[in-house]
Automatic annotation (TrEMBL):
Primary location group: cytoplasm
Renumbered residue ranges of the record's region Disordered: 1-21, 34-66
Compositionally biased intervals (Pro residues): 48-61
Protein species of origin: Platanthera zijinensis
TM spans (from-to): none
Protein name in the entry: Serine/threonine-protein phosphatase 2A activator
InterPro entries: Phstyr_phstse_ac, PTPA_C_lid, PTPA_sf
Function text: PPIases accelerate the folding of proteins. It catalyzes the cis-trans isomerization of proline imidic peptide bonds in oligopeptides.
EC numbers for this chain: 5.2.1.8
Record's subcellular location: Cytoplasm
Length: 400
């Protein structure tokens, strides 16, 4: 698949959000094979917007409302930054000195300190490695047998989902913030240690429960504000990173972490968000990708790399979303956005619409990794809630 779009005026993920044009021209639906994604009609390719050319340039996108409140201000820096690459997770060695993790970030200087540290580099490298493990894989693709650790984590997701049934939403007139969520989260706090302890396979690792638990508790939203956002999602990945630091999950487990565990986590979070009307933390999602999530777009774009038929513009085809949103996280997220947001897609999700004009999923994935670093890991309002202990260290001189 060519790395660059042959059309000279096609938009790039590296283009400024203010100047990238929309490709959201509706196309008539057609039938697609549920196995490979190819069209079953005689059409040579997916029905999609006509290619852009210099002779018929697309009109510049003019949203009817302002884009996401926290739209980026450092677009050029993101364009020029290197694409984050996978890094192996250094396994901690005894003697261990576990500690209850704490918040440390309160200023841009703290952000710079973290992202330039070994902890920051290896954490971002872990996200990139997880993304790489999902490359060109459907959710239903067979994987190696699940380890006991991953099987237990999947059972944890099932348990947390059952608690929603046991603690139904209360009558509530507000759009956001059903108070029943506080009861759900209180139960998580009460029973959380019993969910973590089975992961620790030796007496030597037993004390790590106190360090792991805060990451787990912070992975599902804030009970005081009754909200959820990319910071909570990042703490869930930090929880998995800590398990990797302890050697409890290994690189060969990464595909299962993405296509089994993270899929289950995303499914659970969507139910929590809808049942308890969780408020989007911050403003309304990073760059307007989603009110709550960022990472499934990274993993989901990796899944679609080198797909023979589905391209970034395919998100505008309803038949594609209907048939494949259960197989690819990126499509799962787009389908959810279209379900909960009404109106013209280009107006309520301008960034997703702009990204759909990118030539290849490889470019989308690379751009999203850079955006995640710049718009999540380098933002004080998000990272001020991130936790540091012995496994994700704050002091660079003590790292690994």
């Amino acid at each position: 698949m060519p790395e660059h779009c042959p059309c000279p005026s096609a938009p790039s993920l590296n283009s400024s959000p203010a100047t990238v044009a929309t490709a959201a021209i509706p196309a008539p639906p057609e039938s697609f094979c549920r196995s490979c994604g190819g069209p079953t009609s005689d059409a040579a390719s997916i029905s999609s917007p006509p290619p852009w050319s210099d002779s018929s340039p697309p009109p510049a996108y003019r949203p009817l409302r302002a884009p996401a409140i926290n739209a980026p201000t450092n677009t050029n820096a993101i364009i020029l930054s290197p694409v984050p690459r996978p890094l192996p997770v250094p396994v901690a060695e005894p003697p261990y000195h576990f500690e209850v993790p704490m918040k440390r970030i309160s200023s841009p200087d703290d952000i710079q300190r973290f992202n330039s540290s070994s902890s920051g580099r290896h954490f971002l490298g872990f996200v990139a490695a997880l993304s790489d493990s999902a490359r060109s894989r459907k959710i239903s693709d067979p994987i190696s047998p699940l380890t006991p650790i991953i099987s237990h984590l999947l059972s944890v997701m099932e348990t947390l989902d059952k608690w929603i049934d046991e603690i139904p939403p209360l009558p509530h007139s507000s759009r956001y913030g059903n108070p029943a969520y506080r009861s759900w989260h209180e139960k998580l706090s009460d029973k959380g240690i019993s969910l973590v302890v089975p992961l620790l396979t030796s007496d030597e690792l037993g004390p790590a429960a106190d360090e792991l638990l805060p990451y787990l508790l912070d992975s599902f939203g804030n009970p005081s504000r009754i909200d959820y956002g990319t910071g909570h999602e990042t703490n869930f990945v930090a929880f998995l990173f800590c398990l990797a630091r302890l050697g409890l999950v290994k690189e060969e487990d990464y595909t299962a972490l993405v296509t089994r565990l993270f899929v289950a986590y995303l499914r659970l979070m969507r139910r929590l968000q809808t049942e308890y009307c969780l408020e989007p933390a911050g403003s309304h999602g990073v760059w307007g990708l989603d009110d709550y999530h960022f990472i499934p777009f990274i993993f989901g774009s990796a899944q679609l790399i080198d797909h023979k038929y589905m391209k970034p513009k395919s998100i505008h085809n309803p038949d594609i979303l209907d048939n494949f949103s259960t197989e690819y996280m990126y499509l799962t997220c787009v389908a959810f956005v279209k379900k909960v947001k009404k109106g013209v897609f280009a107006e309520h999700s301008p960034m997703l619409d702009d990204i759909s004009g990118v030539a290849t999923w490889n470019k989308v994935n690379s751009g999203l990794l850079k955006m995640y670093k710049a718009e999540v890991l380098e933002k004080v309002p998000i990272m001020q809630h991130f936790l540091f202990g012995s496994l994700i260290k704050w002091y660079d001189s003590q790292i690994f």
